[in-house]
Design a protein that fits this description.
This protein has 367 residues and is an alpha/beta fold. It contains 14 helices and 15 strands.
């Protein structure tokens, strides 16, 4: 793939910000130091129910999730957490708030990483105990700062903007961790506002260029609004080389989050895992039911794992050119479709055979 991002190797020798960050490992997944931007999600199941949680983790893995996080709200969840870590196909990060003892115990029970907000853990003595436990276990800590739970001393300051509050809080925590000799840090500073998300992470990348950043818009909303807000913010940051791992938070099952994350990475030309569908919006020149055809192609492409481009075009204006530019495609005319693969015309097929013939070629050529 040609990389058109600012300061990419195609346009400049200047390294991208993500190439300058210190690399840590969450289980087997590298984060930072130029590693591919990894995709995360968080289970919505109860950690006290290992079977249902592991089932959800397997569903997420099948969609391409690479790191999964689970909540440990109380000590009763620790036994289940240990079972989950022992059987999970993905690295499991323990999400801890308020009680530092839960974080210490999670590190002992197999966590691949911890996520804490030092601001709600309590005194720095308690934070230090968590740092020590992570160090003994050899696992990283994600420092997660959130606009909804800032330290009160910073939150009440009227002389600071929200991004400035988030940055100041995050930087102070990172400095404390580093002064303790702990450097296996990933940092996130999350807010529901798109411009604030962009400004905050740009500043964090400048202020702490060595620390890997976890990106996401928190409290972004349900599928449609949440997708738009996450993609609006993260596309900007990722295209600037900022961000090492991400979760696209949605008020929806976590299985909705992972495909959106991959679509974003694929759209930016950063990673490719599944097929890309290229289809036109249709107009009065279209002489087939393209919306129905494209919908069926999209549905059937979910079972295809080859990272190919598939064009489904509705008329002779741009159709032949787009289909020739894709790995495989169809350019439609009056009740027919012209199958094209590798830039070469294969044959003309009737409208009711377009999808079946297209997938017969995909199966023969790419699977």
């Amino acid at each position: 793939m040609i990389d058109l991002r600012p300061n990419s190797r195609g346009t400049s020798e200047k390294p991208l910000p993500r190439e300058l960050t210190h690399q840590v490992h969450v289980g087997s997944v590298a984060v930072g130091g130029g590693a591919p931007v990894s995709v995360q999600s968080m289970c919505t199941t109860k950690t006290t129910e290992p079977a249902s949680t592991l089932a959800q983790i397997h569903d997420l893995e099948a969609l391409g999730c690479e790191i999964v996080r689970v909540a440990i709200p109380h000590a009763d969840a620790l036994d289940g957490f240990g079972e989950i870590c022992a059987s999970s196909p993905l690295p499991v990060v323990a999400d801890i708030h308020f009680d530092h003892r839960l974080a210490i115990e999670a590190a002992r029970r197999g966590a691949s990483g911890l996520r804490i907000n030092p601001g709600n853990i309590g005194s720095f003595d308690k934070v230090d105990a968590v740092i020590d436990a992570a160090g003994e276990a050899g696992i990283p800590i994600r420092i997660g700062v959130n606009a909804g739970s800032l330290d009160k001393a910073i939150d009440v300051r009227e002389d600071l903007t929200q991004p400035q509050k988030l940055v100041q809080s995050a930087v102070s925590f990172v400095r404390h961790f580093e002064e303790r000799g702990f450097g296996d840090i990933v940092l996130s500073a999350k807010v529901h506002d798109v411009p604030a998300t962009i400004l905050t992470n740009r500043e964090l990348s400048r202020e702490l260029p060595h620390v890997p950043l976890h990106l996401g818009v928190t409290e972004a909303g349900t599928v449609r609004q949440g997708t738009v807000k996450n993609v609006s913010a993260l596309a900007v940051l990722l295209s600037e080389g900022i961000g090492d791992t991400m979760r696209l938070s949605l008020t929806a099952p976590p299985t909705e989050e992972v495909p959106v994350a991959w679509e974003l990475l694929q759209s930016l030309g950063m990673r490719r895992r599944t097929p890309e569908l290229v289809s036109c919006p249709t107009c009065g020149r279209c002489q087939v039911n393209l919306i129905e055809i494209a919908g069926e192609v999209e549905r059937r492409l979910q079972a295809v794992r080859a990272p190919i481009s598939v064009a489904v075009m509705g008329c002779v204006v741009n159709g032949p050119g787009e289909a020739r530019g894709a790995d495989i495609g169809v350019a439609c005319g009056q009740g027919t479709g012209l199958l094209i693969a590798g830039g070469e015309t294969l044959r003309k097929v009737p409208e009711d055979r377009i999808v079946d013939e297209l997938f017969a070629e995909i199966e023969a050529r790419f699977e």
